[in-house]
Design brief:
Double Stranded RNA Binding Domain, 1 helix, DRBM domain-containing protein, dsRBD_dom, alpha+beta, single chain, 65 residues
Amino acid sequence: MYGPNVSDHTRWEVKKSSSPNPPTWQASLYIDDMNYGTALANTKGAAQDEAARIAYNNLRREGFS
């Protein structure tokens, strides 16, 4: 949809829980400042992967593919 300008329209918000054992990461993916996916996981990458999957499914439901 945005082609090479996709990075101008998306942003990540990633937070680590204050508890060190075990740490939990929360990642949210925003597209044009609208949250399309948020997920919790034990690693930063896993949280981002899951948030991206959720965002993808939400976009498909809205008719984007």
